[in-house]
Protein backbone atom coordinates (compact mmCIF):
# COMPACT_ATOMS: atom_id res chain seq x y z
CA UNK A 1 0.00 0.00 0.00
CA UNK A 2 1.12 3.55 -0.77
CA UNK A 3 0.16 4.63 2.75
CA UNK A 4 2.45 2.13 4.47
CA UNK A 5 5.30 3.01 2.13
CA UNK A 6 4.97 6.75 2.79
CA UNK A 7 4.81 6.27 6.55
CA UNK A 8 7.88 4.02 6.45
CA UNK A 9 9.68 6.74 4.51
CA UNK A 10 9.29 9.20 7.39
CA UNK A 11 11.20 6.89 9.72
CA UNK A 12 13.74 5.68 7.17
CA UNK A 13 14.82 9.19 6.21
CA UNK A 14 15.62 9.87 9.84
CA UNK A 15 17.43 6.56 10.33
CA UNK A 16 19.47 6.68 7.13
CA UNK A 17 20.20 10.40 6.70
CA UNK A 18 19.00 12.80 9.37
CA UNK A 19 19.45 11.05 12.70
CA UNK A 20 17.61 12.23 15.79
CA UNK A 21 18.97 15.77 16.09
CA UNK A 22 20.31 18.64 14.02
CA UNK A 23 24.11 18.67 13.69
CA UNK A 24 26.02 21.48 15.40
CA UNK A 25 29.34 22.68 13.98
CA UNK A 26 31.72 24.54 16.28
CA UNK A 27 33.28 26.43 13.38
CA UNK A 28 32.31 27.28 9.80
CA UNK A 29 32.63 24.37 7.37
CA UNK A 30 34.68 24.50 4.20
CA UNK A 31 32.61 25.01 1.07
CA UNK A 32 33.25 21.37 0.10
CA UNK A 33 32.17 20.06 3.50
CA UNK A 34 29.04 22.23 3.45
CA UNK A 35 28.09 21.08 -0.04
CA UNK A 36 28.87 17.40 0.57
CA UNK A 37 27.51 16.92 4.10
CA UNK A 38 24.54 19.28 4.15
CA UNK A 39 23.41 20.90 0.89
CA UNK A 40 23.56 17.71 -1.22
CA UNK A 41 21.84 15.77 1.54
CA UNK A 42 19.24 18.49 2.12
CA UNK A 43 20.17 18.36 5.80
CA UNK A 44 20.07 21.28 8.27
CA UNK A 45 22.82 22.26 10.66
CA UNK A 46 23.71 24.98 13.14
CA UNK A 47 27.08 26.71 12.79
CA UNK A 48 28.82 28.54 15.64
CA UNK A 49 31.60 31.13 15.34
CA UNK A 50 30.71 31.99 11.76
CA UNK A 51 29.67 35.60 12.39
CA UNK A 52 31.74 36.42 15.49
CA UNK A 53 33.53 39.13 13.48
CA UNK A 54 30.31 41.04 12.74
CA UNK A 55 30.15 44.49 14.41
CA UNK A 56 26.37 43.92 14.56
CA UNK A 57 26.77 41.40 17.40
CA UNK A 58 27.76 44.17 19.79
CA UNK A 59 26.40 47.32 18.15
CA UNK A 60 22.84 46.14 17.62
CA UNK A 61 22.35 45.23 21.29
CA UNK A 62 21.90 48.95 21.89
CA UNK A 63 18.52 50.13 20.48
CA UNK A 64 19.76 53.74 20.48
CA UNK A 65 22.49 52.78 18.00
CA UNK A 66 19.95 51.37 15.58
CA UNK A 67 17.61 54.35 16.00
CA UNK A 68 20.45 56.79 15.40
CA UNK A 69 21.81 55.07 12.30
CA UNK A 70 18.30 54.62 10.85
CA UNK A 71 16.87 57.89 12.16
CA UNK A 72 15.71 59.02 8.72
CA UNK A 73 14.69 55.59 7.38
CA UNK A 74 11.10 54.75 6.53
CA UNK A 75 10.60 50.99 6.97
CA UNK A 76 7.80 48.48 6.30
CA UNK A 77 6.24 47.64 9.68
CA UNK A 78 3.95 44.59 9.76
CA UNK A 79 1.03 44.90 12.18
CA UNK A 80 -1.29 42.18 13.48
CA UNK A 81 -3.60 41.93 16.50
CA UNK A 82 -1.96 38.78 17.90
CA UNK A 83 1.39 38.27 16.13
CA UNK A 84 -0.01 35.78 13.63
CA UNK A 85 0.71 37.17 10.15
CA UNK A 86 0.93 34.68 7.27
CA UNK A 87 -1.23 32.28 9.23
CA UNK A 88 -4.69 30.72 9.35
CA UNK A 89 -7.45 32.55 11.23
CA UNK A 90 -11.26 32.28 11.29
CA UNK A 91 -12.90 33.42 8.05
CA UNK A 92 -14.51 36.88 8.51
CA UNK A 93 -17.80 35.73 6.94
CA UNK A 94 -17.80 32.05 7.95
CA UNK A 95 -16.04 31.77 11.35
CA UNK A 96 -16.31 27.98 11.34
CA UNK A 97 -13.87 27.89 8.39
CA UNK A 98 -10.40 29.40 7.99
CA UNK A 99 -8.66 31.90 5.74
CA UNK A 100 -5.01 32.79 5.15
CA UNK A 101 -4.24 36.25 6.53
CA UNK A 102 -1.38 38.67 5.80
CA UNK A 103 -0.33 41.55 8.02
CA UNK A 104 -1.19 45.20 7.61
CA UNK A 105 1.99 46.81 6.28
CA UNK A 106 2.56 50.41 7.26
CA UNK A 107 5.50 52.67 6.26
CA UNK A 108 6.87 53.85 9.60
CA UNK A 109 9.94 55.84 10.73
CA UNK A 110 12.38 53.27 12.08
CA UNK A 111 12.73 54.75 15.62
CA UNK A 112 8.94 54.62 16.04
CA UNK A 113 8.80 51.06 14.68
CA UNK A 114 11.51 49.90 17.08
CA UNK A 115 9.67 51.45 20.04
CA UNK A 116 6.49 49.58 19.10
CA UNK A 117 8.44 46.31 18.99
CA UNK A 118 10.45 46.74 22.19
CA UNK A 119 7.53 48.19 24.16
CA UNK A 120 4.48 46.58 22.57
CA UNK A 121 1.06 48.12 23.30
CA UNK A 122 -1.85 45.87 24.25
CA UNK A 123 -3.78 46.24 21.01
CA UNK A 124 -1.21 45.27 18.35
CA UNK A 125 1.93 43.28 17.60
CA UNK A 126 4.64 44.84 15.41
CA UNK A 127 7.24 42.98 13.37
CA UNK A 128 9.87 44.19 10.90
CA UNK A 129 9.85 41.27 8.45
CA UNK A 130 9.62 42.63 4.92
CA UNK A 131 10.96 39.81 2.73
CA UNK A 132 12.02 41.64 -0.42
CA UNK A 133 15.78 41.99 0.06
CA UNK A 134 14.96 44.63 2.66
CA UNK A 135 18.36 44.58 4.37
CA UNK A 136 20.03 45.94 1.24
CA UNK A 137 17.26 48.47 0.55
CA UNK A 138 15.37 49.72 3.61
CA UNK A 139 18.27 49.10 6.01
CA UNK A 140 21.21 49.90 3.74
CA UNK A 141 22.87 52.06 6.41
CA UNK A 142 23.50 48.90 8.46
CA UNK A 143 25.15 46.86 5.70
CA UNK A 144 28.69 47.48 6.94
CA UNK A 145 27.79 45.84 10.27
CA UNK A 146 27.39 42.40 8.59
CA UNK A 147 28.80 40.42 5.68
CA UNK A 148 27.04 40.91 2.36
CA UNK A 149 27.06 37.13 1.90
CA UNK A 150 28.27 33.96 3.63
CA UNK A 151 31.53 33.14 1.76
CA UNK A 152 31.64 29.36 2.27
CA UNK A 153 27.95 29.07 1.44
CA UNK A 154 28.30 31.19 -1.68
CA UNK A 155 31.23 29.06 -2.84
CA UNK A 156 29.31 25.83 -2.21
CA UNK A 157 26.13 27.04 -3.90
CA UNK A 158 27.90 28.73 -6.79
CA UNK A 159 26.13 32.07 -6.42
CA UNK A 160 25.56 35.03 -4.13
CA UNK A 161 22.26 35.42 -2.24
CA UNK A 162 19.24 36.55 -4.19
CA UNK A 163 17.89 38.36 -1.14
CA UNK A 164 19.13 39.42 2.28
CA UNK A 165 16.45 40.22 4.85
CA UNK A 166 16.42 41.79 8.31
CA UNK A 167 14.01 40.53 10.98
CA UNK A 168 13.27 42.49 14.17
CA UNK A 169 10.47 41.27 16.43
CA UNK A 170 9.50 40.29 19.96
CA UNK A 171 8.17 37.24 21.77
CA UNK A 172 4.61 37.85 20.58
CA UNK A 173 5.26 37.06 16.91
CA UNK A 174 5.18 33.50 15.58
CA UNK A 175 5.55 32.10 12.08
CA UNK A 176 3.27 29.21 11.12
CA UNK A 177 4.48 26.07 9.35
CA UNK A 178 5.55 26.69 5.75
CA UNK A 179 8.38 25.90 3.33
CA UNK A 180 10.55 28.04 1.05
CA UNK A 181 12.17 27.33 -2.29
CA UNK A 182 15.46 28.81 -1.14
CA UNK A 183 18.61 27.64 0.60
CA UNK A 184 18.38 29.70 3.78
CA UNK A 185 21.32 30.84 5.95
CA UNK A 186 19.66 32.33 9.02
CA UNK A 187 21.98 34.32 11.33
CA UNK A 188 20.73 35.41 14.76
CA UNK A 189 22.23 38.65 16.06
CA UNK A 190 20.22 39.24 19.24
CA UNK A 191 17.91 36.98 21.26
CA UNK A 192 17.01 33.44 20.20
CA UNK A 193 14.95 31.79 17.47
CA UNK A 194 13.14 28.54 18.25
CA UNK A 195 12.45 26.33 15.21
CA UNK A 196 10.36 23.21 14.65
CA UNK A 197 11.66 21.51 11.50
CA UNK A 198 10.28 18.73 9.31
CA UNK A 199 11.91 17.38 6.13
CA UNK A 200 10.19 17.60 2.72
CA UNK A 201 9.43 13.86 2.88
CA UNK A 202 6.91 14.65 5.64
CA UNK A 203 4.75 16.73 3.30
CA UNK A 204 1.62 14.62 3.83
CA UNK A 205 1.77 15.34 7.56
CA UNK A 206 1.31 19.08 6.93
CA UNK A 207 -2.24 18.81 5.52
CA UNK A 208 -1.58 21.46 2.86
CA UNK A 209 -4.87 22.89 1.63
CA UNK A 210 -5.96 26.02 -0.17
CA UNK A 211 -7.45 28.87 1.86
CA UNK A 212 -9.02 32.15 0.75
CA UNK A 213 -6.55 35.03 1.10
CA UNK A 214 -7.31 37.92 3.44
CA UNK A 215 -5.43 40.84 4.91
CA UNK A 216 -5.55 42.83 8.13
CA UNK A 217 -6.36 46.51 7.83
CA UNK A 218 -5.44 48.69 10.82
CA UNK A 219 -6.89 52.07 11.83
CA UNK A 220 -4.60 54.25 13.95
CA UNK A 221 -7.56 56.41 14.88
CA UNK A 222 -9.66 53.63 16.39
CA UNK A 223 -6.70 51.34 17.20
CA UNK A 224 -8.68 48.45 15.74
CA UNK A 225 -8.06 45.79 13.09
CA UNK A 226 -10.42 44.74 10.32
CA UNK A 227 -10.03 41.44 8.46
CA UNK A 228 -10.74 41.88 4.75
CA UNK A 229 -10.90 39.22 2.04
CA UNK A 230 -8.77 39.96 -1.01
CA UNK A 231 -10.53 41.06 -4.19
CA UNK A 232 -10.46 39.44 -6.66
CA UNK A 233 -10.67 36.26 -4.63
CA UNK A 234 -7.40 34.36 -4.38
CA UNK A 235 -6.51 31.05 -2.71
CA UNK A 236 -3.22 30.26 -0.97
CA UNK A 237 -1.86 26.73 -0.34
CA UNK A 238 -0.87 26.56 3.33
CA UNK A 239 -0.07 24.06 6.08
CA UNK A 240 -3.12 23.40 8.25
CA UNK A 241 -1.27 22.17 11.36
CA UNK A 242 -0.77 24.32 14.45
CA UNK A 243 1.84 22.49 16.57
CA UNK A 244 0.84 24.50 19.65
CA UNK A 245 -2.98 24.31 19.79
CA UNK A 246 -4.74 26.78 22.11
CA UNK A 247 -5.57 25.45 25.56
CA UNK A 248 -8.63 23.24 25.50
CA UNK A 249 -8.35 22.37 21.79
CA UNK A 250 -5.48 19.86 21.93
CA UNK A 251 -7.67 16.75 21.64
CA UNK A 252 -9.64 18.20 18.73
CA UNK A 253 -6.47 19.24 16.87
CA UNK A 254 -4.88 15.83 17.37
CA UNK A 255 -7.92 14.11 15.93
CA UNK A 256 -7.97 16.45 12.90
CA UNK A 257 -4.25 16.02 12.10
CA UNK A 258 -3.18 12.56 13.30
CA UNK A 259 -0.34 12.27 10.77
CA UNK A 260 1.43 15.20 12.39
CA UNK A 261 0.74 14.52 16.04
CA UNK A 262 1.16 10.73 15.89
CA UNK A 263 4.13 10.66 13.55
CA UNK A 264 7.85 11.26 14.19
CA UNK A 265 8.58 14.30 16.32
CA UNK A 266 9.77 17.43 14.51
CA UNK A 267 13.36 18.48 15.03
CA UNK A 268 13.47 21.20 17.70
CA UNK A 269 16.37 23.65 17.56
CA UNK A 270 17.17 26.93 19.26
CA UNK A 271 19.47 29.27 17.36
CA UNK A 272 21.26 31.65 19.71
CA UNK A 273 22.88 35.01 19.05
CA UNK A 274 26.06 34.48 17.05
CA UNK A 275 24.86 31.25 15.42
CA UNK A 276 23.69 30.43 11.90
CA UNK A 277 21.01 27.90 11.00
CA UNK A 278 21.31 26.33 7.58
CA UNK A 279 17.70 25.63 6.64
CA UNK A 280 17.61 23.59 3.44
CA UNK A 281 15.13 24.30 0.68
CA UNK A 282 11.64 22.85 1.03
CA UNK A 283 11.99 22.03 4.75
CA UNK A 284 8.87 22.88 6.73
CA UNK A 285 9.52 25.21 9.66
CA UNK A 286 7.60 26.87 12.47
CA UNK A 287 9.30 29.72 14.35
CA UNK A 288 9.02 31.36 17.75
CA UNK A 289 11.45 33.83 19.30
CA UNK A 290 12.81 35.13 22.59
CA UNK A 291 14.09 38.71 22.95
CA UNK A 292 17.69 39.65 23.69
CA UNK A 293 19.10 42.42 25.86
CA UNK A 294 17.50 45.24 23.88
CA UNK A 295 14.02 43.78 24.22
CA UNK A 296 13.80 42.36 20.72
CA UNK A 297 15.02 39.50 18.55
CA UNK A 298 17.14 40.43 15.54
CA UNK A 299 18.24 38.18 12.69
CA UNK A 300 19.62 38.50 9.17
CA UNK A 301 18.88 35.78 6.64
CA UNK A 302 20.42 35.06 3.26
CA UNK A 303 18.23 33.44 0.62
CA UNK A 304 20.15 31.55 -2.06
CA UNK A 305 18.36 30.12 -5.10
CA UNK A 306 17.73 26.40 -4.81
CA UNK A 307 18.59 23.98 -7.59
CA UNK A 308 15.51 22.56 -9.31
CA UNK A 309 17.19 19.19 -9.67
CA UNK A 310 16.30 15.57 -9.01
CA UNK A 311 15.46 16.34 -5.36
CA UNK A 312 12.75 18.72 -6.49
CA UNK A 313 11.42 16.09 -8.92
CA UNK A 314 11.33 13.49 -6.11
CA UNK A 315 9.49 15.92 -3.83
CA UNK A 316 6.89 16.73 -6.47
CA UNK A 317 6.36 13.04 -7.13
CA UNK A 318 5.90 12.29 -3.44
CA UNK A 319 3.56 15.23 -2.97
CA UNK A 320 1.41 14.12 -5.90
CA UNK A 321 0.76 10.64 -4.49
CA UNK A 322 -2.88 10.10 -3.50
CA UNK A 323 -2.56 9.47 0.20
CA UNK A 324 -5.05 8.26 2.78
CA UNK A 325 -3.93 8.15 6.39
CA UNK A 326 -4.04 4.77 8.07
CA UNK A 327 -5.00 6.66 11.24
CA UNK A 328 -7.82 8.58 9.58
CA UNK A 329 -9.07 6.61 6.57
CA UNK A 330 -11.97 8.98 5.90
CA UNK A 331 -9.76 12.03 5.38
CA UNK A 332 -7.46 11.66 2.33
CA UNK A 333 -4.48 14.00 2.51
CA UNK A 334 -4.89 14.98 -1.12
CA UNK A 335 -8.36 16.37 -0.42
CA UNK A 336 -8.00 20.16 -0.48
CA UNK A 337 -11.57 21.44 -0.57
CA UNK A 338 -12.01 24.59 1.48
CA UNK A 339 -15.34 26.39 1.60
CA UNK A 340 -16.35 24.97 -1.77
CA UNK A 341 -13.07 25.73 -3.55
CA UNK A 342 -10.68 23.19 -4.97
CA UNK A 343 -6.92 23.28 -4.50
CA UNK A 344 -4.62 23.33 -7.46
CA UNK A 345 -3.00 19.96 -8.22
CA UNK A 346 -0.03 19.05 -6.04
CA UNK A 347 2.12 18.63 -9.14
CA UNK A 348 1.95 22.28 -10.17
CA UNK A 349 4.84 23.68 -12.17
CA UNK A 350 7.98 24.83 -10.40
CA UNK A 351 7.35 28.44 -11.41
CA UNK A 352 3.85 28.52 -9.93
CA UNK A 353 4.99 26.73 -6.78
CA UNK A 354 7.83 29.20 -6.21
CA UNK A 355 5.58 32.18 -6.84
CA UNK A 356 3.06 30.94 -4.27
CA UNK A 357 5.79 30.57 -1.68
CA UNK A 358 7.20 34.02 -2.40
CA UNK A 359 3.75 35.47 -1.80
CA UNK A 360 3.25 33.51 1.42
CA UNK A 361 6.69 33.70 3.06
CA UNK A 362 8.30 33.68 7.67
CA UNK A 363 9.74 33.41 9.42
Automatic annotation (TrEMBL):
Signal peptide: none
Transmembrane segments: none
SMART domains attached to this UniProt entry: JmjC
Residue ranges with Basic and acidic residues bias: 349-363
InterPro entries given in the database record: Cupin_8, JmjC_dom, RmlC-like_jellyroll
Pfam family, one: Cupin_8
JmjC domain residues: 126-319
Gene3D superfamilies: Jelly Rolls
Organism superkingdom: Eukaryota
Residue stretches in coiled coil: none
PANTHER family given in the database record: BIFUNCTIONAL PEPTIDASE AND (3S)-LYSYL HYDROXYLASE JMJD7, HYPOXIA-INDUCIBLE FACTOR 1 ALPHA INHIBITOR-RELATED
Protein name, as recorded: JmjC domain-containing protein
Amino acid sequence: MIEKGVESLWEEVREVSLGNSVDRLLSPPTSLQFLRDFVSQNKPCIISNAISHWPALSLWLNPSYLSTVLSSSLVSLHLTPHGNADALVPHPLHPSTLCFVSAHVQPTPFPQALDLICQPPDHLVSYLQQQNDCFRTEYGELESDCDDHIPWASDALGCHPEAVNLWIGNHLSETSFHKDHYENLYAVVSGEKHFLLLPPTDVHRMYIREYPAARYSYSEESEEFCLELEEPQRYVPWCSVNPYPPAGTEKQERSKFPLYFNGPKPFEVTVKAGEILYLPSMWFHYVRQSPGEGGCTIAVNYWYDMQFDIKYAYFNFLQSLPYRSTDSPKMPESECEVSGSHASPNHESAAKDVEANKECEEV
